[in-house]
Amino acid sequence: MFNKVLVVDDNKNNIRLLTDILEDEKYEVYSTEKATEAIEMTHSNKPDIILLDIMMPEMDGFEVCKQLKSDYEIKDIPVIMVTAKTDTADLKSALDLGAFDYIKKPIDEIEVIARIQSALRFKQQQDKLKEMASKDGLTGVFNHALLIDLFEKEYLKQQRNQGDLSFVMLDIDYFKKVNDTYGHTTGDLILRELSDILSNSSRTGDIVGRYGGEEFSLVLPDTNSENAFKLCERIRKTVENYDFFTGKEHIKITVSMGICTKQPCDSILSSEMIIKADEALYIAKQNGRNQVKSMLLIM
């Protein structure tokens, strides 16, 4: 897979020159002459590197860089400023705003490739560190801290877009008994395989995380109560019918799930949604386990 580069420059000749250099090195290149399109194109194309001219009409590269770095979804993409300005104060301003590096005009082919490769190596290292910090060490799904962080950001996004949002709490039924009977190694195996089931059963855009212990959570964007229930029922049945094989014996488990759904008209905080989902989970367990319960919001 080719690395993707977005070139933002109001000069067509500069774009053509950079595109020729990058395509010769097998990069996939996107470009725009309008600074105002840079944010949208970054979201739609997800480049690995952004080459950003400083001197542009309508909006200069400093402001574009500032907006890129303030956007949670794209802030970690390295930005390399491309400039004819040699004032060290301007270069310092760009770096202070979060730019990774800069390239001076007139453009030198060797310098362009060297600086891009350096930025890509840095991004790969940062991505690896970020993944290690964001994933639960045992199961590989999001850890508690990032799960909550992503949920809160999705909550704000759905508020802006007037969309539905569902939060699910899931608990393994009688998991202590599994650990006591078969040992913690078997318990860990079940947690890992259950995580795989949840990840494989979820849709693109859903968020799966380990809430703690044997509890997992799902964040379901643009999902009303009915569709959240259908998805959770499908997961519940998959788990119920799944053979957890330890290498010596087959083990069956079940799960209980609680759902809280926020509609655009509901005035409920993200923290309150978690509490409501947990209450629904408690009801599911009190009613016999191996079932899904939705918490109705009465506002």
Put simply, the count of helices is 10
Dominant shape: elongated
In CATH terms, what is the architecture of the largest domain? Answer: 2-Layer Sandwich
Number of domains: 2
Summarize the helix and strand pattern as letters: EHEHEHEHEHHEHHEEHEEEHE
Largest sheet: 5 strands, parallel
The CATH class name of the largest domain reads: Alpha Beta
Q: How helical, in percent, are the residues?
A: 40-55%
Terminus-to-terminus distance? 50 Å
What is the mean pLDDT? 93
- Radius of gyration of CA atoms, rounded to a whole number: 24 Å
Low-confidence stretches: none
Strand content: 15-25%
Class of secondary structure makeup: alpha/beta
Query: How many β-strands, per DSSP?
Result: 12
Strand order of the largest sheet: 2-1-3-4-5
Looking at CATH, the homologous superfamily of the largest domain is Reverse transcriptase/Diguanylate cyclase domain
Output the CATH topology of the largest domain.
Alpha-Beta Plaits
What does this structure look like?
There is one protein chain. This protein is an alpha/beta fold and 299 residues long. It has 2 domains: 4-133, 3-Layer(aba) Sandwich (Rossmann fold), CATH 3.40.50.2300; 144-295, Reverse transcriptase/Diguanylate cyclase domain (Alpha-Beta Plaits, 2-Layer Sandwich). The chain has 10 helices and 12 strands. The strands form 3 sheets. Strands 2-1-3-4-5 form a 5-stranded parallel sheet, with helices on both faces. Strand 4, helix 4 and strand 5 form a beta-alpha-beta unit. Helix 7 (175-182) packs across helix 8 and helix 8 packs across helix 9. It is elongated. It starts with a strand and ends with a strand. The model has no long low-confidence stretch (mean pLDDT 93).
